[in-house]
Amino acid sequence: MGEARREFKFLDVKPFSPNLGAEVYGVDLSSPLTESQFNEIRAAFLEYQVLFFKDQHEIAPEQHIEFGKRFGKLHAHPAAPTMKGHSEIFEIHATKDSKVANGEFWHSDVSCDEEPPLGTILQIHITPKCGGDTMFSNMYLAYETLSAPIKKMINGLTALHSSEHIYTGRYADRGKSDTEISCPEANHPVVRTHPDTGKKALYVNRTFTKQINELTKFESDCVLAMLFEHAEQVNYQIRFRWSINDTAFWDNRCCMHHAIWDYWPEERKGHRVTIKGERPYLEATKEGSTPENLRLSRQL
Ligand code: SIN
């Protein structure tokens, strides 16, 4: 994105592509972090949006939870099966018997929640022989590269994110019946301000975003189709190939991701800890967002 890259003293950070992501070496997430390591991880996370920690040992559930908690309170998934004895850990698991695999379409995690996750930390323990990559897309760039008239139109609009169509029946084969889950829905600004960087990001995704509230159904379908396709362009993306114990930490406020299920009938398994975020909002800037629609996006 043409911005000067920060130097790190306690981490070895290698950019993954010019537009998104970095591989991180020189830190062992299976043991407690020093304050300096933590501060640099946080800075790298805000700069690169998704970090891939390489050469890792398997992280014990307690340590994985501890690492997540350094960034904030943990988020409880409304529907997914969790690890026995560790309800903070969402077990990602696809086998030959799976009917669905998690995260198969572009999304920002649980954007249907009132306060969707800030970030997600996933360590993969079993990988297929090949395949099972995860793609990520830069939603700052997706916003920045829209034309000025489209930016003006969508600044201040809000959209409904819902989950019934996703979560109903989804985890039944993993012991979570529909009576044990909840299917939240929430309205969020179409363009959100990142609370830590102050930058604007597009915040719609084809998994959860159903309707732009201020438009007719037809207008909303057309505008959303355009925004989804725009945000899924290859130039804003990276595709990460996992090795065992690789650990990804992505920022759901400015990234989408898509886990590719191309490895059936092989198995893929991992542990995911998710950090709670705040209610998305849009701050007024000269580009758009009138006081009226700003007020609306904060109230909804
Ligand atoms: C997800 O958390 O959406 C799944 C990501 C993955 O399995 O790579």
Summarize the structure in words.
This protein has 300 residues and is of the alpha+beta class. It has one domain: 4-Layer Sandwich (Double-stranded beta-helix). It has 7 helices and 16 strands. The chain has helices at 35-48, 61-69, 139-144, 148-154, 164-167, 217-231, 291-299; strands spanning 12-15, 22-25, 50-53, 82-83, 86-94, 119-126, 134-138, 158-162, 185-189, 191-193, 200-202, 209-212, 237-240, 247-251, 255-259, 268-275. The strands form 4 sheets. Strands 1-2-3-14-6-16-5-4 form an 8-stranded mixed beta sheet, covered by helices on one side. Strands 13-7-15 form a 3-stranded antiparallel beta sheet. Strand 4 (82-83) and strand 5 (86-94) form a beta hairpin. 39% of the residues are buried. The protein binds succinic acid. The site of succinic acid has 9 residues, from strand 6 and strand 15.
Q: How would the blueprint of this fold be written?
A:
Elements: E1 12-15, E2 22-25, H1 35-48, E3 50-53, H2 61-69, E4 82-83, E5 86-94, E6 119-126, E7 134-138, H3 139-144, H4 148-154, E8 158-162, H5 164-167, E9 185-189, E10 191-193, E11 200-202, E12 209-212, H6 217-231, E13 237-240, E14 247-251, E15 255-259, E16 268-275, H7 291-299
Parallel strand pairs: 2-3
Antiparallel strand pairs: 1-2, 3-14, 4-5, 5-16, 6-14, 6-16, 7-13, 7-15, 8-9, 8-12, 10-11
